[in-house]
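pasting for ref
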Amino acid sequence: MFRIPMSGQTITHQIEGKFGAARVLLKPASPGTGIIAGGAVRPVMELSGIKDILTKSLGSDNKLNVIKATVNGLQSLRSPSEVARLRGKRVEEIRGRSVFDELET
């Protein structure tokens, strides 16, 4: 088991998970989007508690490798506070303005 850094009900940033020949692209989504995922990725997203996400499975379609690539991507996510600490900056400097902030104004 591991923690997944989240921003609301989505992930904090775009990431690509890899395992063998399987690659999975995970992108944050605006609220209300839902889980846009197919095959073996959808159950992993549902079990992880992520409600809004866009995914694309690339490369191999071997279900076990796709699941492992998805988990690899989720484990590679970093929280804004972790990135700020590594860069020696404040969280506000790291976050900046996102596309979702512009939609809300």
